[in-house]
Amino acid sequence: MKLSARNALKGKVVEIAKGQIVAKVKIDIGGQSVTSVVSVEAIDDLGLSIGDEVSAIIKSTEVLLAK
Fold first, then answer.
1. How far apart are CA 33 and CA 16, in angstroms?
2. Which residues are within 8 A (CB) of 21 and not within 5 positions of it... i.e. 6 or more apart?
3. Looking at residue 17, what DSSP letter applies?
4. pLDDT tens, 23-39?
5. Max CA separation in the chain (angstroms)
6. Confidence class of residue 11 from pLDDT cuts 50, 70 and 90?
7. Which of 3, 42, 54, 59 is the most buried if burial means most Cβ atoms within 10 Å?
């Protein structure tokens, strides 16, 4: 699959918290974590489980920085 997004962070799924409609997926990326909110249907379609290697693909018009 080809994507236009250029920000792909490879990591491992460390937590999945399913609700009725959406789920929070926490990904460990070299000691830092990224959390994504996706549909439960997407989790099931991907067969996603804890320990899976995934890519967090980020497409955004803004990146905010704080110091």
1. 13
2. 39, 40
3. E
4. 999 999 999 999 999 99
5. 39
6. very high
7. 54
